[in-house]
Design brief:
Strand order of the largest sheet: 1-2-4-3
Mean pLDDT: 79
Order of helices and strands: HEEHHEEH
Largest sheet: 4 strands, antiparallel
Radius of gyration: 19 Å
Strand content: 5-15%
Low-confidence stretches: none
Length: about 90
């Protein structure tokens, strides 16, 4: 076996296409969004969502070392007209 055969055998597999994920459900039944999911939903950059969380403009929880925003918080902000949903 030469080096080309080794590289071919160890080549990464084709990546799966992107599939949007729904809100994450935690054991207490509350559903949460990640900053990435919120950014996709509102058409923002992920860092803008993180900044809003740091500035406490978005309520969030740390669960398993991840900063998550409850779906109820997103619904409240959209309902009060603070942000319009993109798309």
């Amino acid at each position: 076996m030469n080096i080309i055969d080794t590289v071919t055998l160890n080549a990464p597999q084709q990546a799966e296409p992107f599939k949007p994920r729904k809100a994450v459900a935690i054991t207490d039944g509350t559903k949460y969004f990640t900053p990435y999911q919120i950014a996709r939903r509102w058409g923002w950059a992920v860092e803008s969502v993180r900044r809003a969380i740091r500035q406490r403009r978005l309520d969030s929880r740390i669960i398993s070392r991840r900063r998550l925003v409850p779906v109820a918080e997103i619904d409240r902000i959209e309902r009060e007209g603070h942000i319009s949903r993109a798309g």
